[in-house]
Amino acid sequence: MTSSTIITNNSHARIVEFVSTLFAQHLAYTGMASRVEILNEGGFRSDGRRQFELRSINIDLSQQGHADGSASISHGLTHVLVSVFGPREAKNRSQTIHDRANLNVELSIAAFSTGDRRKRSRGDKRVMEVAGAIKSTFEPVIQTSLYPRSQIDIFVQVIQQDGGVLQACINATTLALISAGIPMVDFVCAISGGVHSTNPFLDLTLIEESDVPNLTIAVMPKTQKVSLVTMETRLHVDRYEEIFRLAIDAGLIIHEEMKAAVLARSKTLMTCIDLGTHGGEEME
């Protein structure tokens, strides 16, 4: 399976995606997910996508408040915002590491992000699992040795959930770290995958996650090394290799979207700098 097999659905009408996903969310939260056909005879999923078709991706690298770097990303209706502060002096000296920077990850999930309106605290098991996965993903990727005895704070906010929360958190964190100018060995691009019967899927929605065995894979596109693999449910070993290969290909596609957003943001900033420089020269 090549990368060309995997496509995004940015050309689809957003209103169709919005309505179909809201319907899927309603079914998932009311216990009716099993009544929805995950893949119909025509090869379409419940939200109208093909098996290997990714949801639309929207990226915003605008500066948020006083953060050193920030980014928001939407995979379909899953929306995540990440703010990065640092490297800076650690507030708690006991967390200081003499030869590298300490990475601190805090995750918050908005109560309105899901249909059940459940408020999750920082001590919630699910919150701690996702925060831990983000930290373990980026610790070997960030060049922390350049900033000894300092701390890098990553604050992740889940605004809306419709499946693929971990992948969105990882992708947004990558972009926020780049925005903050923190050196990394490579991008980290994540995608979720699953299997229904014998049919593999990519970029799962909430209703698909609740109905099929699934995993999330984070890959570094330059070397195609995998920095994270998490499985929420059991996946048959015979299907694992295929999903793994598809997820790596999908990660390369997501990398292109992320790289394009970073380049566009860089060009905008350079234009602003040039205008400011020339404007100052004219005033003189």
Automatic annotation (TrEMBL):
**What's one Pfam family the UniProt record gives for this protein?**
RNase_PH
Q: Does the keyword Transmembrane apply?
A: no
Example GO BP = rRNA catabolic process
**Which SUPFAM superfamilies does the UniProt record give?**
Ribonuclease PH domain 2-like, Ribosomal protein S5 domain 2-like
An example Gene Ontology CC term for this record: cytoplasmic exosome (RNase complex)
Location comes to: Cytoplasm; Nucleus, Nucleolus
GO terms (molecular function) for this protein are: RNA binding
Q: What CDD domains does its record include?
A: RNase_PH_RRP41
Which InterPro entries does the UniProt entry name for this protein? ExoRNase_PH_dom1, ExoRNase_PH_dom2, ExoRNase_PH_dom2_sf, PNPase/RNase_PH_dom_sf, Ribosomal_Su5_D2-typ_SF, RNase_PH
Keywords, in A-Z order:
Cytoplasm, Exosome
- What Gene3D superfamilies does the annotation carry? GHMP Kinase, N-terminal domain (3.30.230.70)
Ranges for domain Exoribonuclease phosphorolytic: 53-183, 186-249
Q: How does it assemble?
A: Component of the RNA exosome complex. Specifically part of the catalytically inactive RNA exosome core complex (Exo-9) which may associate with the catalytic subunits RRP6 and DIS3 in cytoplasmic- and nuclear-specific RNA exosome complex forms. Exo-9 is formed by a hexameric base ring of RNase PH domain-containing subunits and a cap ring consisting of CSL4, RRP4 and RRP40.
Give the family from UniProt: Belongs to the RNase PH family.
List the protein's name.
Ribosomal RNA-processing protein 41
